[in-house]
Amino acid sequence: MAEVLIYVDHVDGAVRKPTLELLTLARRIGDPVAVHLGPGAEEAAKVLGEHGAVKVLAADAAEFADYLVVPKVDALQAAYDAVSPAAVLVPSSAEGKEIAARLAVRIGSGIITDAVDLEAGDEGPVATQSVFAAGYTTRSRITRGTPVITVKPNSATPEAAPAAGAVEQLSVSFGEHATGTKVTARTPRESTGRPELTEAAIVVSGGRGVNGAENFHVIESLADSLGAAVGASRAAVDAGWYPHSNQVGQTGKSVSPQLYVAAGISGAIQHRAGMQTSKTIVAVNKDAEAPIFDLVDYGVVGDLFQVVPQLTEEVKTR
Ligand code: FAD
């Protein structure tokens, strides 16, 4: 069976969920071979093997942490040369998309970004994307070179599929551009204890209807009762009620959780662009004519300050 390269997103060997989702999708196309760069390969290999990685190509070098993306592209290309895979899959993070794009240029391949589903096809993998501010869903296939595809978090449920997952050392020589952009400082974001917005299985977002930073605790309480991330519309962010890092939409982050709850959000097309691929959408809005109700699975017409706290209490009792 053909092999499929998976770029591993991890923090010191702790594999992030989007990579496990990629392994599940990759198994529809071929045998997943994981590429682990940086420390913690042995630890990561256990989890990667449990989710179907037949082997783990590992390399560790100071360059991966000290310089932006190019050393990682050099290593991914070394893995590509070693394996000659049927496809290369990369998580759709900002870094992942840059790495994938650079690799595609180097190997002369087409690229599909932000896929939300993947299936095998007679002439290569077929990717599903949500495009034009989520106005259309497309299915497409790369016709030139080895398909390079980035996949959005929450596009699949990780499934266990025990495989060898044996670690093999990958030999990497860095090119002349590898040390072009040095990382001068890393400032970890203050932890809220909530899941990362783009990876969360549940997102609860507040909009202009929340009517002030001092009221966002209503949204946060529901999020915490569900173990969810907190999102915000641009109106709420522009008003200074919530950080830009939490903005969902065309000029914010794109999320695709199992459950998206929009409270006091009208459903403008630019907001929809960032959340329309959510599996189940719930809205609370006091205006029954709000456009958000056109795309919900469940809608509550009502004042969020009455509805959301009741919802929170109900969730807490379960
Ligand atoms: P509004 O549209 O003002 O809606 C507020 C809603 O709250 C209303 O439907 C109202 O009925 C309801 N409401 C009020 N009080 C209550 C209450 N007590 N209980 C229940 N419901 C209540 N927007 C984004 O979100 N993300 C983006 O990334 C983004 N990018 C953009 C990029 C461009 C180039 C442009 C032009 C716009 C962009 N926008 C984006 C802005 C977008 O067009 C909307 O202006 C914005 O999404 C509106 O936010 P909102 O729904 O919170 O506010």
Order of helices and strands: EEEHEHEHHEHEEEEEEHEHEHEEH
Count of extended strands: 16
Tell me the strand order in the biggest sheet: 9-8-7-10-6-1-4-5-11
Largest sheet: 9 strands, mixed
Q: Structural class, judged by helices and strands?
A: alpha/beta
Envelope shape: globular
Poorly predicted segments: none
The Rg value, from CA coordinates, equals: 21 Å
Tally of DSSP helical segments:
9
Overall helicity: 25-40%
Summary keywords:
single chain, 318 residues, alpha/beta, nine-stranded mixed beta sheet, 16 strands, globular
Structure description:
The protein is α/β, with parallel strands linked by helices and 318 residues long. It has 9 helices and 16 strands. The protein has a 9-stranded mixed β-sheet with strand order 9-8-7-10-6-1-4-5-11, sandwiched between helices. A 5-stranded parallel β-sheet has the order 13-12-14-15-16. The N and C termini lie far apart (46 Å). The mean pLDDT is 96. The chain binds flavin-adenine dinucleotide. Flavin-adenine dinucleotide (FAD) binds next to helix 7, helix 8, strand 15 and helix 9.
